[in-house]
Design a protein that fits this description.
10 helices, 23 strands, single chain, alpha+beta, 27% helix, 5-stranded antiparallel β-sheet, 7-stranded mixed barrel, 429 residues
C-alpha cells in the first residue's frame, strides 16, 4: 500500500550572504534539476554576474552527471543525471563552488557592442495593435499607441523623449531565448534609460517576427511570429537564422546575440528595414560589431557618480506610474479585468435558414471572428478562404467546402462564435 509522505520544503539549502556575496537559495526543481537563486527578486547586474561566475566554474570544473546549465537573470538551473550524481552531492558541489567564486565586484566579461537597425513605430507593429483592438479589446490603456502609453507611465513630456531614450540607450543582454529562438532579454546599462511598462492583458494573439518591445524593465526582440505582450517601440533584423549560417551568425549557432552583448539601435525607415532584413538573412548585410569588456567595477563607479540623477529619474517615473494606475482604478479597469471571462463568453448562434440545395459553413470551435473575407453573391472555389477565426492565440482559416456562390454571410468581425455556429451559407454550382 502507498505510504503517505509529509510535505517537504522546496528549499534544499541556503548559503548566507557574507560580505559581497549574496544569499544563495538552492531550490528543488523536479527530481533532476536544482534551481540556484541569488539574492532578492530584483533587477541587479551583480546577481546576473554571480550567476555567470557559477556557470563558468562548472565549465572550468566539469562534473560527471551534470547535463546542462541554463542561466536566468538571477538564477542558474542545473540539470543533472540523478543515477550518476546524487542531489546531495550536487548541493555539496554548489557550496564548494560558491566559496571559490571571486568577489562579485571583480567580475568582468567579454562584451560586444552590436548596432541594430530599428524601424521606429514600424507598420508591422501598428498592424499588431490594430488586430488586438479588433479581436481582443479596443479600450486597453496601451491602445491605440504603445508609444504614448510608454510616455505616460514613465512621466515623459513627449513621444520624442521615448524615442531619444530608446536610441540613446545601451541595452545589456542578460538572457537569451525569451520563450524561443534566442530572443534577447536586455535592460539599459544606465538606469535613467530603463523605461518601464506593464504587459498586454490579455496578451496579443499576433506579433510580427523581430518586433521590439518593452515589458517591465526589460526589452525583448521577438524571435519569431507569434503571440506577445511587450509594448512596441519598433522592429529590427532577424535574431535567429533558421536556414543557414551567414554573416553575423557566427560560432556555429543559429542565434545572433550572446550573453552580455550591448545592443545599440540606430534609426532606419520601414522600407529600408525590409531590404536590410532580406539581405541580412542571406549574409549580404553586415552589422557593425565592436569588441569590448564589461567590468562590474566600472559600472559601480558609474552608478555612484550619477546617483543623484538616477534617483530623480526614478522618482518621476514612480510618480507617473502611480498616477496611471490611479486612472485605471478610477476608470474601472481592474473591475473590468475581473469580470472579463463572463463578459466575453460566446453566445449561442442565431438560427440560420439553409436552403435544401445549399450548405452551411460552420465554426469548428469556440473562437473570435478575426476577418470575414466572403461577400454575399460572390463566386468561390473549393478551398478558398471565407472567414478567419482566432482562438488561443492562433488563427484558423475556414474555407469553402465546394465551388459555388455565397448566399449569405452570417458572422461579423469581433463576434465570438460557438462550435457549429453558421458563418456562411454556400450554394454549390
Amino acid at each position: 500500500p502507498p505510504t503517505p509522505l509529509s510535505p517537504q520544503s522546496p528549499i534544499l539549502r541556503t548559503i548566507d550572504a557574507v560580505g559581497g556575496r549574496p544569499l544563495v537559495t538552492c531550490r528543488r526543481n523536479g527530481d533532476k534539476n536544482i534551481l540556484v537563486e541569488y539574492g532578492p527578486m530584483a533587477l541587479d547586474f551583480d546577481l546576473r554576474f554571480r550567476v555567470h561566475a557559477l556557470m563558468q566554474w562548472f565549465k572550468a570544473n566539469p562534473q560527471e552527471g551534470v547535463i546542462d546549465l541554463c542561466p536566468g537573470i538571477r538564477s542558474l538551473q542545473v540539470h543533472f543525471d540523478s543515477r550518476v550524481l546524487s542531489q546531495q552531492k550536487l548541493l555539496d558541489l554548489l557550496t564548494t563552488a560558491e566559496r571559490q567564486l571571486p568577489p562579485t565586484g571583480d567580475i568582468e566579461v567579454p562584451s560586444r557592442i552590436v548596432h541594430l537597425p530599428l524601424s521606429w513605430d514600424d507598420p508591422a507593429t501598428r498592424l499588431a495593435i490594430e488586430k488586438y483592438m479588433q479581436s481582443v479589446r479596443d479600450d486597453a490603456p496601451w491602445c491605440p499607441s504603445n508609444l504614448e502609453f510608454i510616455r505616460r507611465v514613465n512621466g515623459l513630456e513627449s513621444i520624442d523623449d521615448v524615442r531619444r531614450i530608446v536610441f540613446g540607450a545601451s541595452y545589456l543582454v542578460l538572457a537569451l531565448g525569451d520563450v524561443y529562438l534566442g530572443a534577447p532579454v536586455a535592460t539599459p546599462i544606465d538606469p535613467r534609460h530603463r523605461l518601464v511598462t506593464t504587459k498586454y492583458n490579455p496578451a496579443r494573439t499576433w506579433t510580427a517576427e523581430n518586433s521590439v518591445g518593452i515589458g517591465g524593465a526589460y526589452l525583448c526582440v521577438y524571435g519569431m511570429e507569434g503571440p506577445g505582450g511587450y509594448q512596441f517601440v519598433g522592429r529590427t533584423v532577424q535574431q535567429f537564422n533558421r536556414w543557414r549560417q551567414t554573416g553575423d551568425f557566427v560560432g556555429g549557432k543559429p542565434w545572433l546575440l550572446r550573453f552580455f552583448d550591448q545592443i545599440r539601435f540606430y534609426p532606419v525607415g520601414a522600407d529600408e528595414l525590409l531590404k536590410i532584413r532580406e539581405d541580412f538573412a542571406l549574409g549580404r548585410f553586415k552589422l557593425k560589431v565592436e569588441e569590448t569588456v564589461f567590468r562590474l567595477r566600472d559600472h559601480h563607479a558609474f552608478l555612484k557618480s550619477n546617483a543623484e540623477g538616477i534617483a530623480s529619474f526614478r522618482q518621476t517615473q514612480q510618480a507617473a506610474f502611480a498616477a496611471e494606475r490611479a486612472r485605471w482604478e478610477a476608470a474601472g479597469e481592474f473591475k473590468a479585468a475581473a469580470g472579463a471571462e463572463s463578459a466575453v463568453a460566446p453566445q449561442a448562434a442565431a438560427s440560420v435558414d439553409v436552403p435544401e440545395d445549399a450548405e452551411a459553413v460552420e465554426s469548428p470551435m469556440v473562437a473570435n471572428v478575426w476577418k470575414v473575407l466572403a461577400v454575399e453573391g460572390q463566386s468561390i472555389k473549393a478551398g478558398e478562404p471565407l472567414v478567419i477565426l482566432e482562438a488561443m492565440k492562433m488563427e484558423t482559416v475556414v474555407a469553402a467546402p465546394c465551388d459555388g456562390v455565397v448566399l449569405s454571410v452570417d458572422c461579423k468581425p469581433a463576434q465570438m462564435v460557438m462550435p457549429g455556429a453558421v458563418l456562411c451559407v454556400v450554394r454549390a454550382t
